[in-house]
Design goal:
Number of strands: 13
Radius of gyration: 19 Å
Strand order of the largest sheet: 1-13-12-11-2-3-4-5-6
CATH architecture of the largest domain: 3-Layer(aba) Sandwich
CATH superfamily of the largest domain: HAD superfamily/HAD-like
CATH topology of the largest domain: Rossmann fold
Strand content: 15-25%
Distance between the termini: 32 Å
Largest sheet: 9 strands, mixed
Order of helices and strands: EHEHEHEEEHHEEHEEHEHEEH
Helix content: 25-40%
Number of helices: 9
Shape: globular
CATH class of the largest domain: Alpha Beta
Number of domains: 2
Structural class: alpha/beta
């Protein structure tokens, strides 16, 4: 059944069959989103961090030769690397516009051409939005985010209008998408998390590895669709998803990662 049509099942009710698939795989490529997956969502994105149990489970998986780990996030790559703080992982920032890991390095070339324009746009939006409390404009070098989690609910229409007026016009090289309490401004290039995970697969030491992808946001849907033969997991039940499985709460993610790290290989 195509990933876009299959029903989404509770992950924890299918651990035996998942264990069988993992034991049969010669290598496993584990993709993980950061905010809302590895780290709980917080009002101030600058304060997001992984719980100690999550970091410990990741460290155990990173030391297991069966696993390759890739962290893929809307955050800038440098910020993402700092928050995860583990060596020899693959890091993909800005929704996969920049990728770095053992034996691989990538920056989407068209996005790289628009750094100056993005800086100017970010400064313009800060000036236009400065009178609305709780709004933060974050320039992530290759993309930008307008965070409104702490803004008054009554101001959301005005925020969206200001951003759309600044971004959506003929010839502008950027477009706007909306995530969880954030407006994402990205270069208008044919690149998303789905294309990023396929690039990572081909560039990795084990291109035929069994992929697992765990994410919580609408931007992760492209990756779910790109991995129809993999194990895809949506965190939360608040939205429609193409993922094969779901975890009800972010707090269950470290439990699943610990289960993965303790899964014995076939003799």
């Amino acid at each position: 059944m195509p990933a876009s049509l299959r029903s989404t099942e509770p992950l924890l009710e299918h651990l035996p069959e998942i264990a069988s698939a993992l034991r049969a795989a010669s290598a496993i490529l584990l993709f993980l989103d950061f905010d809302g997956t590895l780290a709980p969502i917080v009002d101030d994105p600058s304060l997001a961090s992984m719980p100690a149990a999550t970091h410990q489970a990741l460290a155990r998986l990173a030391s297991d030769p069966r696993f390759s780990l890739a962290i893929i996030s809307g955050r800038a790559l440098a910020d993402l690397r700092l928050r995860v703080d583990l060596e020899n992982l693959i890091y993909a920032g800005n929704h996969g516009l920049e990728i770095n890991g053992p034996g691989m390095e990538f920056i989407e070339p068209t996005a790289a051409e628009h750094l100056k324009a993005l800086g100017e746009l970010s400064r313009h939006l800060r000036a236009r939005l400065r009178d609305i409390p709780g709004v933060e404009v974050e320039n992530k070098v290759l993309s930008a985010s307008v965070h409104f989690r702490r803004a008054p609910a009554g101001s959301l229409q005005e925020i969206r209008q200001i951003v759309n007026d600044a971004v959506i016009f003929d010839g502008n090289p950027f477009h706007v998408t909306e995530g969880r309490k954030v407006l994402e401004i990205r270069p208008s290039v044919d690149w998303d998390k789905g294309m990023a995970v396929r690039w990572i697969q081909q560039a990795s030491a084990h291109p035929d590895a069994l992929p697992i992808y765990i994410g919580d946001d609408s931007t992760d849907e492209d990756a779910f669709l790109a991995l129809p033969e993999g194990i895809t997991v949506s965190v939360g039940q608040a939205r429609k998803t193409s993922a094969q499985y779901f975890l009800e709460r972010q707090e269950l993610v470290p439990e699943f990662l610990l289960w993965l790290s303790e899964l014995p290989s076939l003799p």
